[in-house]
Amino acid sequence: MSRRGAPLTDTRTIASALDQAAGRLAVLHDSAKVDAEALLCHVLGKPRSHLYAWPERVLAPGQWQAFQRLVARREQGEPVAYLTGRREFWSLPLAVSEHTLIPRPETELLVELALAHIPESVHWVIADLGTGSGAVGLAIARQRSACHVLATECSPGALKVARENRRRLGAPNISLVQADWCRPLAPGSCHLIVANPPYVPSGDPHLSRGDVRYEPRSALVGGEDGLDAIRAIGREARGSLHSAGMLLLEHGHDQAARVRALLEGLGYRDVRSYRDLADMERVTLGSVP
Ligand SMILES: C[S@@+](CC[C@H](N)C(=O)[O-])C[C@H]1O[C@@H](n2cnc3c(N)ncnc32)[C@H](O)[C@@H]1O
Fold first, then answer.
1. Which residue CA neighbors atom 19 of ligand 1 most closely?
2. DSSP 60
3. pLDDT value at residue 2
4. Within 10 A of 259 (CB to CB), how many other CB atoms are there?
5. What is the predicted pLDDT for the residue at 10?
6. Which of 215, 218, 220, 230 to mutate to test the pocket of ligand 1 (most atoms within 8 A of CB)?
């Protein structure tokens, strides 16, 4: 029987496959229907509109089996983005893997603010620290083609994904370097440094819930208070920034006051935080004199 009580037919159409999968996933995930659609689109290599245009189309046995395998893995909790290997960020279809953070919509605020501070057609050097899949650096590089973006990342697995994204999206003005935060940046060389660093406190219960369980801890956890990476970046970035250069940092919704105090303590000027659409202070800016 289907979840609506009607007998299941043996016809493995797009509509019946989606209906069954959404029923299985609804027990665990609020996003059951959307997840089922994303997984089926991935198996068929088609956009979502195809599912609505051809609901009666019968799946080939291989497609049906591949879809069932993905639904079973989603039932176990694996994030859809890791199952499909894709996540959209800033309208860019990015490759992701279990070595990268799954880029969050909230991080688009960091890109938006960076672009608001980079005048059109300047030839700036911009650094993206902890680039992961390349999300932030690639979004900026594509919107400011006269700038050069230098993106650093300590995880070789993440860097491989970022390089694949650079190749597929064609962004010649970004360099991707395996390195600790600011290490490859020449003193005084950067006009703007952006980072979405790991900032979750190590004891945060969210780390053992939902999709986050599957993401690399090194991409999430910033020590006991969550601020270890922000402290390191704040210290290192000062020396890498040009005079009047800016540091723009994403952080947790309850960390803004501490991040402002930290940057002011390190001698940054004009320190201020910006709110996201949910009215949370999620990004802080500091300038060097
Ligand atoms: C929160 S994730 C952000 C990824 C990406 N920028 C995004 O917004 O989707 C933080 C990234 O910092 C990287 N990272 C952690 N420690 C680092 C270090 N010491 N130097 C460089 N990158 C580091 C992690 O591997 C991870 O990719």
1. 180
2. P
3. 41
4. 24
5. 54
6. 218
* pLDDT score recorded for residue 29: 81
| Ligand 1 pocket member 255 (CB < 6 A) | no
> Do strands 125-129 and 190-195 pair parallel, antiparallel, or not at all (unpaired)?
parallel
Alpha helices in 194-270 (DSSP H): 217-220, 228-240, 256-265
107 lines ligand 1 (CB under 6 A): yes
Could you tell me which residues come within 8 angstroms of residue 116 by beta carbon, excluding any fewer than 6 positions away? none
Task: Answer whether 251's CB lies under 8 Å from 234's CB.
Answer: no
Nearest to 17 by CA among 78, 70, 52, 64: 64
Q: Is 201 in a helix, a strand, or coil?
A: coil
Is residue 137 within 6 Å of ligand 1 at its C-beta? Answer: no
Ligand 1 site, residue 177, Cβ cutoff 6 A: no
Residue 153, ligand 1, Cβ within 6 A: yes
Q: What is the mean pLDDT of each run of 10 residues along the chain (289 residues)?
A: 44 93 91 96 97 96 97 96 98 98 97 97 97 98 97 98 97 97 97 98 96 97 98 98 97 98 98 96 97
Q: Give the predicted TM-score (pTM) of the model.
A: 0.94
- 273 CA from centroid of ligand 1 (Å): 21
In this prediction, residue 6 carries a pLDDT of 41
Q: Which residues contact 289 (CB under 8 A, 6 or more apart)?
A: 243, 244, 267, 269
